[in-house]
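ingest -> validate -> predict -> emit
validate: passed (alphabet ok, no gaps, 79 aa)
predict: started
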Amino acid sequence: ECDDAIEDIVNEAIVADDEHLPVSLSLDHVKPDVLDENTRELMREEFDDICSMLDFARFGHDIFRRWYIDGRIAFHKVI
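emit:
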């Protein structure tokens, strides 16, 4: 029963389709004097790169499920 409940929560939280990623970066509420347009665009590009590296479109459901169950999730960045 617990597994079914968790699966229902994850399915409601992560909704994906072929056209859009299940997550996006919204900077709408950040004041223009805090971030200029160039910085906003750089942040969006980096966010998209991270989603691409994680293959979030394909593995987002599993990533969110692990985070939801464990309460935290860590990724190691290798340069």
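The chain is about 55% helix and 0% strand.
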